Amino acid sequence: MVDIHCHPLAGVDDGPKAFEMSVAMAKMAAEDGTTHLVATPHCNYQYPFDVAVNQAKIDELQAAVGESPTLLMGCDFHLSYDNIRQLLDGQGPFTINRSKYLLIELDEHFVPQQFDNVLYDIQVAGFIPILTHPERNPVFVRHPALVSKWVMQGCLVQVTAQSYTGGFGQTAERLARLWLENGLVHFFASDAHDDKYRPPLLSRCYERVALEWGKPTADRLLVKNPQAVIQGQPLPPQPPPVDMHETKPKRSWLDFFRR
Q1: Calpha distance 42→16 (Å, rounded)
Q2: Residue 128: beta bridge partners?
Q3: Which residues, including other chains, have CB under 8 Å from residue 73's CB and lie 6 or more apart?
Q4: Structural domains counted in the chain
Q5: What predicted TM-score, i.e. pTM, was given to this entire model?
Q6: Tens digits of per-residue pLDDT, 110-145?
Q7: Any idea what the CATH number is for the domain that residue 179 is in?
């Protein structure tokens, strides 16, 4: 399996504070079956993204854990004005393994009014946006069809593995399943921050997806799609996405008595 969203680097964001925890997380991921782990420090107003510092920490961690898992650099990219300007001006390697794939983190409380335009600008610049963990965002709890709108516009979607297995509550699990049923999920990733409460484990999610949707689907979401990302290649063929704005809810005969 390949994990494209993880926070194993110590002292750079809200992930581990000590290097020993970083080592424990990387080794835990390898033992769970992860072959490649993308370190994705936050890049927002609270946590500056320093490429040199992050790469040095990746190199140090790789030396400590050996060959497995292979550690790569990415970024949990927050959509702020300054970040977007740096990205479009080519001032920072924010993408996953210097590919065209970019993890995009939205604010927890609102979606920017001009997000459609920002998404268009990012794509015109040659980047492929990956929306991170929308199932944990209150905005999408209220407006789940927004995800289908942006997938139709070329955005990809990454859901947290623990969300699908119930680790973030019933609402997150329900949304993860709803979007998976509608062909709107392209990756599961750990978004791990420690080795206990938010660990870098993917196998349980893989097993559940394989049980409920078949092994080819589990391979696509946790192996083949993320492999394509770290290699900078196009994704393999995906199920056609469903436009949830056009999906009418099923009505019960009781609805006629509720008017």
Answers
A1: 13
A2: 101
A3: 38, 39, 51, 54, 55, 58, 93, 96, 97, 98
A4: 1
A5: 0.92
A6: 777 788 888 999 999 999 999 999 999 888 888 899
A7: 3.20.20.140
Tell me the residue range of the domain where 229 lies: 2-257
Residue 104: which residues within 8 A CB-CB, separation 6 or more?
77, 79, 122, 129, 130, 131, 132, 155
d(C-alpha 158, C-alpha 74), whole Å: 14
Strand stretches in the chain, DSSP E: 2-6, 36-39, 42-43, 70-73, 76-78, 101-105, 128-132, 156-160, 187-189
Which position has the token pair 């494209």? 4
Tokens read off for 218: 């589990």
Alpha carbon separation from 248 to 76, 183, 242 (Å, rounded): 34, 17, 12
CA 213 to chain centre: 20
In angstroms, the CA 73 to CA 222 distance is: 18
DSSP, collapsed to helix, strand or coil, labels residue 76 as: strand
